[in-house]
Design goal:
The protein is an all-alpha fold and 244 residues long. It contains 10 helices and no strands. It is 75% helix and 0% strand. Keywords: Antibiotic resistance, Cell membrane, Membrane, Transmembrane, Transmembrane helix, Transport.
Amino acid sequence: MNTAVLRTEFRLFGREPGAVFWVFLFPTLLLVILGSIPSFREADQSLGGLRPIDAYVPVAVLIALIMSGVQTLPQALTGHRERGILRRMRLTPVRPAALLSAQMVVQGTVALGSALLALVVGRLAFGVRLPKQSGGYLLALLLAAAAALALGSVVSALSRTTKIAGAIGSAVFFPMMFCAGVWIPVREMPHAMARVVQLTPFGAAARALDRAAAGQWPGWEHLGVLALWTALLTAGAARWFRWE
């Protein structure tokens, strides 16, 4: 990967206050708002004795990945295509693939940084326990990040303009937020609904992170769903993506 391109993309990302806020700061801000509600700091038997704020830390982590994957990444890539940047790069030693790789590294790094911030703030501000199965948690988090970026790449591939990318991204965004458990934690969903939701990338990620946070190794079925979605979405993005 071209380090100059990577540094440039990081600087460009830093100049987008909206992207910085929604991807890096908003998930933790939402966690702080929820944690400020007294009932969210009390044990809930329907959550197996956990407090709602404990259950929402993995949700905050996934929000960062969803924001980065289906909102920020498609806007950036289609913006480069729309302005002819990818086409002009063909005349230079830097290949367009370097820009695509750099964008994925930037978005993935910022999203993972946001996840770390949510974990730290949850621990310091509300006494949320850090994941007991750290290795499994990290594996599930990396697979979820890969799935989110692959999904964003598909949105980019199907979008000719930033307006279309925004529309498709928004259409995908809210169902993925539901599957991640933003409105109803996956563990609280009716059995039939939960089974369906866990077949989606972020539903599977939510359950994998929950299990790892509780000290269990993430279910292989959940990790397998994440890996399968990543492979399918990556193949689709590679097939449909156009540089011009």
